[in-house]
C-alpha cells in the first residue's frame, strides 16, 4: 500500500475518507479541520470545524460564530480512526500544523508556516514524520528573506529622514499588520501608530489574545498636521486610493515577501519596499525538510516544481499536489 494512501488530495482541499473530514477545504463541507484563519484556508459555512482557539476567533470575526471545537496546541482529537494533533506553525495567530496519525504512519500538514521569530504568534514546532505536506509560496532559490530588523530599520530611517511626511505601510489585515506593529514596538518605537479602519477589528482581536500592540489610533478624521512624522497602516488596496490622498505626502511602503520582486513594487507604486514575509523562504523550506527527514514530501500552493526537484536530487520522494483556491492572501 502506498504511503499516505488514506489521505486524498483534491482540488478543493485534502480529504480524509476514514474520518469523512476535509483539511482547509475551499468549499463548505460537513466536517472541516482548519490550519489557520486566512481566507484562502478558512472559509465559512462548514457544518463543524476543528481548529485552535485563535483560528476559531478569527473565523468568527470574519464569518460569524462557528460550530466548532477548539483544540489547543499539544492536544489532539480522534476523528474516526485518525488521530489529529495541532502544533504551532509560526504563521499567524492560531496557525497550526496538523499531525495525522493512522495505520502506523504519521503525516504532517504544514498549512502556511515560517521559521522566523514573530512576537505575535507561537513559533514553528518541528515534528518528524513519514510524509511532510509543505507549502511552497516562496519555493524558488531567489527568495531569501532579509533580517526582519533590517527591514524595520528601513522603515524607521525613512520616518526620521523626512519628518514632515508620514509613512503609509500597506499590510494585510490578518497577521502582517499586527506583526509590523509588534516588530516596531520590539525595536523601541513607542509612538502612537495610526490605522485604517479596516485593520482595527483584527488588531483588537490580537490584543484580546494577549498580543501587546501599544497605542493604536484611527487615522480617519485626524488633521493632516497630526499625521506628519507618523506611521500609518492600511490594507494594500488603500495605498493609492482616495483615502490615502488626504495624508501628508505619504512615503508609500508595502510589507510583503513579494517586495523582493521589483516589478511588484513598481506595479503598486511602492516607494519603500519592506521584505517582510509570514512564509518560509527557500532556505527555510529546504532546511525544514532536512530537519524533519520525511520519507516523502508533498508540495502545495506555490512554486512546487523547484522544491520537488530539490527533493529528488537528494533522493527524497516528492510530488506536487493539485490544490486550488490558494491566493497568498496573507503576504
TrEMBL record:
The keyword Ligase is annotated on this UniProt entry: yes
SUPFAM superfamilies assigned to the protein according to its UniProt record, in alphabetical order: Metallo-hydrolase/oxidoreductase (SSF56281)
Any Pfam family matching the protein: Lactamase_B
InterPro entries: MBL (IPR050698), Metallo-B-lactamas (IPR001279), RibonucZ/Hydroxyglut_hydro (IPR036866), Xnuc_lig_assoc (IPR026360)
Transmembrane found in the keyword field: no
A molecular function GO annotation: RNA endonuclease activity
Metallo-beta-lactamase domain boundaries: 11-172
Name recorded for this polypeptide: Ligase-associated DNA damage response exonuclease
Native organism taxonomy: Bacteria, Pseudomonadati, Pseudomonadota, Alphaproteobacteria, Sphingomonadales
